Amino acid sequence: MAKKITDRSKDYSQWYLDVVREAELAEHSPVRGCMVVRPTGYALWENMKKELDRMFKETGHENAYFPLFIPKSFLSKEAQHVEGFAKECAVVTHSRLKSVEGGVEVDPESKLDEELIVRPTSETIIWDSYRNWIQSYRDLPILINQWANVVRWEMRTRLFLRTMEFLWQEGHTAHATREEAVEETERMLEVYRTFAEEYMAMPVITGVKSESERFAGAEETYCIEALMQDGKALQAGTSHFLGQNFAKAFDVKFQDQDGEHKYVWATSWGVSTRLIGGLIMTHSDDNGLVIPPRLAPTQIVVVPIYRSDEQKSAVLEYAEPIIESIREKGISIKLDDRDNFKPGWKFAEHEAKGIPLRIAIGPRDVENGNLELARRDTLEKSIVPSTGIAEYVDELLETIQKELFETAKDRMESRTRVANSYDEFREEIEKGGFIYAHWDGTPETEEKIKEETKATIRCIPLNSEPDPGECIVTGKRSERRVLFARAY
After folding, report:
1. 274 close to 236: Cβ distance less than 8 angstroms
2. Nearest CA among 23, 41, 4 for reference residue 353
3. Cβ distance 106 to 97 under 8 Å?
């Protein structure tokens, strides 16, 4: 079989696209910059969504849904917000088409009185609703999450990592005090960290964005940053403390227990289908996709091997109670008994799609009471007895989950370094990875580093110990090192 996936070492970008294609996760759509998420990719997103939704609800949040379209005037109410998204907005100007010879065209008589923006994010339209929902301190807090799609008019796109339309969730909360809102922002950041590390097996660094990297309209943006196999960083999730900016823009006040009217405090937070891109680039190899078991749509695939109808009947009869015992453990298992594909072809297909464990059963296995197990992450094969197989694979899936995380963590730590001068920084950034270095805190220095090295401040790490030093560029005093990397 001809190799269909480019080696990572030769062309990482093409390798990534090859993995997406061969795993049948997504493909380009007729609309430039948009993607078709195929069933395998959507099943992976559904598993991510299921776990995140559970975690959101365990922290007191409820789901709601708000309109796709936002009146243009709403965006202009919060100055930083509109400035941040103005160049990415898709605008609806007319309400209908009309038939003409050979096709259709926009009906000029259907021009809208006010243009509508296809949501790039929903702060503005949600806070318009919150104005009607909030009158008293008894109405707070409001803890709402929305699963939706958004549109941001990107010029350069890549499947999952950056597309004009993508799927995501966006949380929007309202609080009586600043302290409650900050606590909520940090709580949701921890939810994202937990999900990334315990479900995606993707180690992350938590921190706060520099002023120039903040979300438009936020007072602080918290983030989780991951490191991909090519040494580039990926912003995998953000949680924003919005202060009272949107409350003031939309006049959202509440009457406190003393009868005083005050503006509420706000947060927003979100992750998107970009997480699928992060998962691909954290774990996958030159054979295709690798999926952590806790998120895999199919955790185990069973491939029967036979040369005759008689052998097929015996193998399937032997496999049936094995499959049922595994399924009773709550493990997602699939039997691939397609007759029109050879076992070797099936093996390659399931490797490309990242199924964590493969069980192969042939006539000799039936005779000996065994089966062959193959791990997707290490490609290791072993012959094991069928007795107690459900307990065995249940433990093995957890081992795979743990080892994927440890491998990724070791890789990240080995590619995290310190630079004490600008010359050293320039040299180290060319090798990829995370670089800790002193920065004087000014946007001018930050921009200079970005222009000259293409590296950005990924975050100011949380809970980092004071480490006074001198900025690598200006020599001015710096209280702690910040995290730099080139990024997606």
Report:
1. yes
2. 23
3. yes
433/448 Cα distance (integer angstroms):
20
* Domains parsed from the chain with CATH numbers: 12-283 (3.30.930.10), 300-396 (3.40.50.800), 417-485 (3.30.110.30)
Distance CA 205, CA 227 (A): 9
Assessment of whether the complete model's pTM goes beyond 0.85: yes
Q: How far apart are CA 324 and CA 335, in angstroms?
A: 11
Pair of tokens at residue 443: 């946007």
- pLDDT tens digits for range 380-411: 999 999 999 999 999 999 999 999 999 999 99
Amino acid at 102: G
Confidence at 1, pLDDT banded by 50, 70, 90: very low
Q: Tokens for 85?
A: 């998204």
Q: Which amino acid belongs to residue 484?
A: F
Mean pLDDT, rounded, for 306-320: 97
Residue 70 phi/psi, 5-degree rounding, is -125, 125
- Residue 261 carries which side chain, given as an amino acid letter? H
Strands 205-208 and 220-227: antiparallel
Backbone dihedral region for residue 381 (phi beyond 0: left; psi -120 to 50: alpha; all else: beta) = beta
Using DSSP bridges, classify how beta strands 261-263 and 253-255 pair: parallel, antiparallel or unpaired.
antiparallel
pLDDT tens profile 192-201: 999 999 999 9
- pLDDT attached to residue 155: 85
Q: How far apart are CA 231 and CA 228, in angstroms?
A: 5
Question: By C-alpha distance, which of 419, 455, 414 is closest to 436?
Answer: 419
* Residue 53 amino acid letter: D
